[in-house]
Amino acid sequence: MAQQTLVGAITSTLDQALERDPEVILLGEDIGSNGGVFRATEGLMAKHGEDRVVSTPLDESGIMGTAIGLAIAGMKAIPEIQFEGFLGPAYDQLVNHGGRMRTRTRSAVTVPMTVRVPVGGGIHAPELHSDSPEAIYTHSPGIKVVMPCTPYDAKGLLNSAIKDPDPVMFFEPKRVYRTFKEEVPDEYYEIPIGEAKTVVEGDDLTVVTWGAPVFQCLEAIDNLPEDVSVELIDLRSIYPFDIDTIAESVQRTGRCVIVHEAPLTCGLGAEIAARIMEECFLHLEAPVQRVTGFDTIMPYYKLENEYLPEAPRILKGITECLAY
Amino acid sequence: MPHHTVYEAKIEHLQILDENGKLDKKLAKDTLTDDQVVYLYEQMRVCRELDEIAFKLQRSGRMGTYPQNKGQEANAVGSALAMVKGNDWVVPSYRENAALFMHGMPMHYVIQYWMGDERGSKFPEGVNITPLSVPIGTHMLHATGIAWAFKQRKEADRAVITYFGDGATSEGDFHNAMNFASVMQVPTIFYCQNNSWAISLPREQQMNSATVAQKALAYDMPTIQVDGNDIFAVYKATQDARKRAIEGGGPSFIEGVTYRLADHTTADDARRYRDEEELHAWLDKDPLIRTRKYMESVGIWDDKKQEELENRAKTIVKEVVDAAISVSAPESSEFFDDMYADLPEDLKVQRDTMRTSSIGRNPSQIGLNAQAAEIQ
What we know:
The complex is a heterodimer of chains A (324) and B (376). Chain A is built from 12 helices and 14 strands. Chain A has 324 residues and is an alpha/beta fold. The radius of gyration of chain B is 24 Å and the shape is globular. At the A-B interface, helix 3, helix 4 and helix 5 of A face helix 6, helix 7 and helix 14 of B.
């Protein structure tokens, strides 16, 4: 058992995966001697060799496409895309090939790979380094999508992703890479993909979120009057997502606020709201509220906190939903 | 030396069997045996028959859009023979049917596939082929990745061949695949079927390069241009490339100069953009005609054998079409079942109810009125 940050838990989980399975191969830009721009692969090349922790040419489509080829040949490919903003060139390979290969060959050819991608805003990064594109990949059949926000969950979900026989997008909220440490067991464990976690229990309103905003939601909840009891659900898995946990909670509370960094329109919040309407229609006391990024370009960092769903805006959303 | 040459290169062209069926015996040494020539000719002829029947199936409304292979068969058979079936991998585009058959793809699969049934891409165990790639140029990266796995696992006797057209070389992924293969020094053979046309765009508008083969120079990859309608040259170049690959020499590039004698697909009409005279000039360079001329000239082929082959090709193709047509109709559950190894619950519900509307899908849902319930 060791105290680890989120990024530290990812590094040690990758280390154990490389140790455990000779078929695991890491590939990405600057992941070798540099240990990755976020140091998520720090020390792994020195320990496991430059043929297993491979600094590739600067080519996201090439990384994704060759990872698919490695996976087709049966290896466990773990490509890293340096920032979510660089997924664009890799999109075609991931969505049109990675996600489709199994079904179009009726499982004769499969793509067991885990795509690691730092995601989201809040670290004053350059342009195209702060987006939240998870809904795009949720809308792309054949791919699973997860986004843990704690070191413990990161290890468990990364293990599940690596073991999974299908492509998994493993989004790492960079804002919480190093914000806190928690106990992470040394031994191998998995957290099943598709299971949400109830972070705070409550009876008056349900907040559903994932990634870094979990912590902004906690801050907002802390600022509520003491007699208000809010339940906070960390979705953890974006696809498939845990509608059962959400529905059970909202049927109890009758009110729901969904929080995400991604833009409002066609964000995952829209899908969750639709599912809540289906599953909880006669239980609802108020329209489902969404506190999200705006339908704008993610602004450069001087204005990023105006764009992001920070605690005051979440608090406002919760308060208004409760007052309805 | 402030100003000097730092790199020089040249592109060689190889032709062993010319369009009149005349063989350069010196160059042909250690290439194809007589038996292999006959075998490849038979493969080409059967593939041509399949092509023509597929065209008719489309025209009679029994098959969807189909891309004919006509005129390019020598590229497929010559290269496929140089690769090792069941050991190497073939990563195709969609104009290499004969190569796929030679590497174990049941022939009726290709008909089944173009009849709109993905089960035509469910190759049997041990058939090392990725599915036909309809988008252009994206599959070459997979060939690089598979070859990378061979290198990583130290499976030194294995190589990968990937096919693509001249149009594909304009795509970014072509260059990505070439660069990765070159940097990683993996055993991939890039085979460009330069058939002069990418639907309606002629090669000279596709690129301002004298050859396609020279594109490999940027990646320091051994590269050659061959007469793609010459089974000897295609075989020789692929054999050399494979030898280099399994000896650790990394990737190679082959440009097969060939010609699309048919339309791009059955949905296309090349008369809208292509000069008939150009087509007619290439009809004389047909790989089947020149191979037959050669075989007759050395006494290993005659009219009787030709007639027997044509009859056999008809029988084979009839059986193939019958097999494709008699396959049981696919069920809707099939497009769900292989979405993931473990199907998420929501997808199971969609599959089992064939509904995406929630009320009808779950009659126990609160609020369903009696009249609607009866319709369930």
